[in-house]
Amino acid sequence: MSDKPPAPLTEFLHLAPPDQRLDHALVVAGTFKVDKFNEMLFDLTGTHLPDTIRRASGKRQAEYFAGRYLAALALRHFGVEQFDVLADEKRCPDWPNGFIGSISHTDNFAVCALAPTSKLRAIGIDCQEILTPKKAAKLWPKIIDENEYSIISAANLELNYGLSLCFSAKESIYKALYPFIRKFFGFSAAKLCAVNPRQHYLEFQFSSQLATPIGINHPLRVYYQLTDGRVLSHISLGPNQINA
Predict the structure, then answer these.
(1) Which residue, among 63, 60, 47, 52, has the nearest Cα to 6 in the 3D structure?
(2) ∠ Cα 200 206 209 (to 5°)
(3) Shortest CA distance to 127 belongs to which of 7, 31, 8?
(4) Which of 34, 64, 105, 202 has the lowest CB atom count within 10 Å?
(5) How do the pLDDT tens digits run along the chain, 244 residues long?
(6) Residue-wise DSSP of 130-156
């Protein structure tokens, strides 16, 4: 990739300033316009286009490109050039040796978090549009249980905001821990046990059956931001917090 972004790229993707508030990790993000996407951006930026994505809709191609381009920018920050971030059979990104990362997107926003494995052993990031009250009322039993519902209510969060936070946070936990567990686990594996609106974090008790083999013996803290009608959540675990 050249230092000066090509015009079709700047028309499609607007980058936010790099964010380093997540300890030891770099977070790069941007908003994008699906109607400004052109498949030629893969060639223009040297971004690998897998056959499965080539056959996908324009919207899916735009989302995939945005995430992988941000991943390339994050890797470049750490001195890694021209590495294709491919995905395994579960669509989890494969990072170069010595790094751990996570990618997420909505319909018009993408984000990537990346860190050296010498600093962090696990990282997960997720973004979601805030659910409407109607959708939240319908979906909550699939994402949280009655106790978690009570914790959200006690924190004076409207259900659609609280559920959006929980949904995103549980997705971040999944992205952070799946590389170690290597099997699917559902929303019920992480139970909300605390909400701290002042410091913008949620705490979860993680299934002991899944946590014990990888050395997790503490609640999982997931931080969040609420901006522009969406939630952005992230979790990171250092070398002393996970033993896998």
Answers:
(1) 47
(2) 170
(3) 31
(4) 34
(5) 446 778 899 999 999 987 766 778 999 999 999 999 999 999 999 999 999 999 999 999 999 999 999 999 999 999 999 899 988 877 789 999 999 999 999 999 999 999 999 999 999 999 999 999 999 999 999 999 999 999 999 999 999 999 999 999 999 999 999 999 999 999 999 999 999 999 999 999 999 999 999 999 999 999 999 988 999 999 999 999 998 6
(6) PPPHHHHHHHHHHH--HHHHHHHHHTT
- In angstroms, the Cα distances linking 168 to 68, 144, 158, 159, 230 are 20, 12, 16, 14, 10
Q: How far apart are CA 206 and CA 160, in angstroms?
A: 23
Q: Which residues pair with 101 in a beta bridge?
A: 114
**CA-to-CA distance for 71 and 240, rounded, in angstroms?**
26
Q: Output the pTM of the full model.
A: 0.94
Point out which residues pair with 109 in neighbouring strands.
31
Amino acid identity, position 70: L
Report DSSP state, residue 79. Answer: T
Measured distance CA(211)–CA(196) in Å, rounded: 23
**173: Cα separation from own chain's centroid:** 9
